[in-house]
Amino acid sequence: MLVIGGGIAGLSSALSAAQAGADVRLVSEAETTLHHASGLLDVLGYPPNADVDGPVVDPFDAIGELPETHPYAIVGEQAVRDGLAMIDDVLGEAYHGSHTDANALVPTHGGTVKPTARYPTSVAAGLASDDRELLLVDFERLTGFDAGVAAEHLEAAGIPAETNAATVEFPIVVRDDAKVTRYAHLLDENPTVTVDGREQRVRTALADAIEPHLGEAERVGFPAVLGVDHPAEIRNELEDRLGAAVFEVPMGPPSILGGRLEDRLYAALDDAGGEIEAGGGPIVDFDADDGTISEIYMDRSGSRIPYAAEQYVLATGDVAGGGIDADRAGVTEPIFGCDVPHPEDRYEWFEGEAFGDHAFAEFGVVVDDALRPVGAEGDPEFPNLRAAGAVIGGYDYPAEKSASGVSIATGYAAGRRAAKEV
């Protein structure tokens, strides 16, 4: 079996199939985009086309009310639960949320509150439903997180906790344009620095810089840079020195939380016996015998490398991920030429309002109940091709906050169905 795509949908498909006993190879054109993701795993934050005041409390209560074209309606609630259970087993104690169907409310770097089903353990002490006083901290020269702005937005959102903010100098001067990974690696390495004539480790010096701002706060929120290799150790040391719970605030790309998630999922697939070829190059062609895909061709440094399999899963993402092409000529799925329904008039692809119900947000392939892309007449394009994740149309995942949940559920279902056919 061959899975095309290295994001959450592709990894869920490959894991599901490997656990079902199939021989699995995962290939992707480029490195995974998980390091751009928040690291939060959502199911459904806001129902589509519904006039609701606030986020969904229990996404499983809302799944039954979704339109029949929605991916959740196609795979069914049980596939959503089974897919999450598979990921829960992989992530173990590194993530929270599996104890309840209810969404958790997680503050983000912009001061918004995101409803999500699963969240890293390092985020847990920061939930917006917690009424303990909190202090948000940012660093001079660190871009992408302004603790003062985030605190103001959280207070305006009406969270029950008193929220304050502080900006401190990181113990080692880091250039203004340094990536967040630079801070994370320094905290991992914990080198000795000299502060006010005293030699200290970086973690100790950072805690000392924050302590004067602590006040009565029982929680301290840091930008999500608390280590790549030793996040639990760093967080525990800071908690001991500050006498307060420490949590990370999910950041935009590049995301340390997303990178940690990526590492765990790829390690799980490797442990399950899956073969991984990420960043191998673009897929430029395929062969089909009597309408059944026999092999694909990947362009690697000018050479066409064939990959043959009995079953294929397409998990290449939407327009943003390159899984759907959209230009003046129309909208297409570029690898297999699968049908992507769309209005011929490009002015019908969008609404005049920035946050309107834009048609383009739901562009993607249409699938049958076996997750096989179908043509305009409703017949499967190829009997041995299935789709998973954002390449499937019929839903607006940014508005719904359902991206990773749909990827996990459809990936799990596609992988299991394909494994049965191998």
UniProtKB/TrEMBL annotation:
Molecular-function GO term, any one: glycerol-3-phosphate dehydrogenase (quinone) activity
Q: Which InterPro entries match?
A: FAD-dep_OxRdtase_2_FAD-bd, FAD/NAD-bd_sf, G3P_DH_GlpB_su
Gene Ontology CC terms: glycerol-3-phosphate dehydrogenase (FAD) complex
Q: Where is the FAD-dependent oxidoreductase 2 FAD-binding domain?
A: 2-402
Task: Provide an example Pfam family for this protein.
Answer: FAD_binding_2
EC no.?
Answer: 1.1.5.3
What span is annotated as the signal peptide, if there is one?
none
Keywords for this protein: Flavoprotein, FMN, Oxidoreductase
Q: Which domain of life is it from?
A: Archaea
Identify the SUPFAM superfamilies for this entry: FAD/NAD(P)-binding domain
Name the top EC class.
oxidoreductase
- Please report the name of this protein according to its UniProt entry: Anaerobic glycerol-3-phosphate dehydrogenase subunit B
Classification lineage: Archaea, Methanobacteriati, Methanobacteriota, Stenosarchaea group, Halobacteria
